[in-house]
Design a protein that fits this description.
38% of the residues lie in helices and 28% in strands. By secondary structure, it is an alpha+beta fold. The chain has two domains: 5-73 and 95-177 and 268-346, FAD/NAD(P)-binding domain (3-Layer(bba) Sandwich); 181-267 and 351-385, 2-Layer Sandwich (D-Amino Acid Oxidase, Chain A, domain 2), CATH 3.30.9.10. The strands form four sheets. It has an eight-stranded mixed sheet with strand order 6-5-13-14-15-12-16-19. It has a five-stranded mixed sheet with strand order 2-1-11-18-17. Strands 3-7-4 form a three-stranded antiparallel sheet. It binds 8-demethyl-8-dimethylamino-flavin-adenine-dinucleotide (RFL) and P-hydroxybenzoic acid (PHB). 8-demethyl-8-dimethylamino-flavin-adenine-dinucleotide (RFL) binds at residues 8-14, 31-34, 39, 44-47, 101, 123, 126, 157-159, 162-163, 184, 186, 265, 284-285, 292, 295-299, 301.
């Protein structure tokens, strides 16, 4: 089989890239290790930056998002039960869209189906070859039969545990990492959200987040120990803990119900440098990870893809290599700003093992500063709604 760009992974990064390239007339093959249902069953991100929304519109997959997603013009911050609303519209004239990653993925899969391009699911043993020359290849096994795809470029969009980054010689790559000593325990429940907007809460017992997927479906998270097990958290125990961490009115308003999903996500900051190795590019979680506190992971996958699609379209359209040469530097400059913001949001909102009395006073001062200073509010709002591409 021959294609122009072989894409590894059918998460948001791979699907967005496939769609953007298809609109430029560039041929792609997408190889995904899991089944379609498995990919659609993963509950992850919920907040789209304004720029991500604009990108989805530009590639013609925004219709259902505008019909079913919820536009949010602010968030609530809560510190030891005291609340403060940040009004993004007033502070920076911007907004975000609450629309699940699962739904974005579903819309992109439907668009790919409609164009007839297809996705090769359950591709096993994917391996990358010869990306240091001009004729890279990707091999995989499907239903017991070995296949080879020859291509001009490989896009590694296969997430943090994928094969693409792991295929790069160790001496050619440098990684930067911080693993946080806690995780997020999340539940999904078919009950109306406790508030119209997201609530990010700091409490001496740990962080909590009240989010949503629709007017009838809520997503809640609490900070938990890194080694805790989902099985030890009954729904009742989860709700009791959540109530203790938010302000009393929110706790009273909470409508509980049986969880339809419950999982623990570890928290990590990670960046690989560079993001281009000859004819191989890394994008999305394959290239970098942020803790979810800033709601940046999916949005970074989208901005990486904007740059990569542009670079490849310049290569094929204008026969210019400037875009692919500049890809890594351009992406990393934006990525590190999102890393900084996500790390900072995490550090002010969570309880760390080393958070002593001094540390909590500093966290309190951050909250008071955000409450009292328009500049501080603008800084958070500008980052949360998304820095320019
Ligand atoms: P994905 O989504 O992990 O997709 C990678 C795909 O590659 C496949 N794959 C392979 N395919 C073939 N061969 C192999 N060897 C392969 N190895 C892996 C995988 O099966 C998968 O389908 O990466 P991608 O596309 O880069 O997308 C990144 C986002 O999924 C991620 O950044 C976000 O979900 C992060 N995130 C959030 N981001 C936001 O922007 N806003 C949020 O509100 C937000 N909340 C979250 C989050 C992530 C969370 N978890 C569980 C990590 C909340 C949580 C709890
Ligand atoms: C979510 O709804 O899953 C969500 C929202 C905001 C975050 C992280 C996750 O910062």
């Amino acid at each position: 089989m021959r294609t122009q760009v072989a894409i590894i992974g059918a998460g948001p990064a791979g699907l967005l890239l496939g769609r953007a390239l298809e609109l430029q007339g560039i041929d792609t093959v997408i190889l995904e290790r899991r089944s379609r249902d498995y990919v659609l069953g993963r509950i992850r991100a919920g907040v789209l930056e304004q720029g991500t929304v604009e990108f989805l519109d530009a590639i013609g997959v925004g219709a259902r998002m505008h019909a079913e997603g919820q536009v949010h013009t602010g968030v609530e911050l809560c510190f030891d039960g005291e609340s403060h609303r940040l009004d993004f519209a007033d502070l920076v004239g911007r907004k975000v869209m609450v629309y699940g990653q699962t739904e974005v993925t579903r819309d992109l899969m439907a668009a790919r189906d409609a164009s007839g391009a297809g996705i090769i699911y359950e591709a096993e043993g994917v391996s990358l070859h010869d990306f240091d020359g001009s004729a890279p290849k990707v091999r995989y096994v499907k239903d017991g039969v070995a296949h080879e795809v020859s291509c001009d470029f490989i896009a590694g969009c296969d997430g943090f545990h994928g094969v693409a980054r792991a295929s790069v010689p160790e001496a050619a790559i440098r990684t930067f990492e911080r693993v946080y000593p806690f995780g997020w325990l999340g539940i999904l429940v078919d009950r109306p959200p406790v508030a119209d907007e997201l609530i990010y809460a700091h409490h001496e017992r740990g962080f909590a987040l009240c989010s949503m997927r629709s007017p009838t479906r809520s997503r809640y998270y609490i900070q938990c120990g890194a080694d805790e097990r989902v099985a030890d958290w009954s729904d009742d125990r989860f709700y009791d803990e959540l109530r203790r961490r938010v302000d009393p009115e929110t706790a009273d308003r909470l409508v509980t119900g049986p969880s339809i999903e419950k999982s623990i996500a570890p928290l990590r900051s990670f960046v690989a440098e560079p993001l281009r190795f000859g004819r191989l590019f890394l994008a999305g979680d394959a290239a970098h990870i942020v803790p979810p506190t800033g709601a940046k992971g999916l949005n970074l996958a989208a901005s990486d893809v904007v740059y990569l699609a542009q670079a490849l379209s310049e290569f094929y359209g204008d026969r210019s290599e400037a875009g692919i040469d500049g890809y890594s530097e351009r992406v990393l400059r934006r990525v590190w700003k999102a890393e900084r913001f996500s790390w900072w949001m995490t550090s002010i909102l969570h309880i760390f093992p080393e958070t002593d009395a001094f540390g909590r006073r500093i966290q309190r001062a951050e909250f008071d500063y955000l409450k009292g200073s328009r500049a501080a509010g603008q800084s958070l709002a500008e980052n949360y709604t998304g820095l320019p591409f």
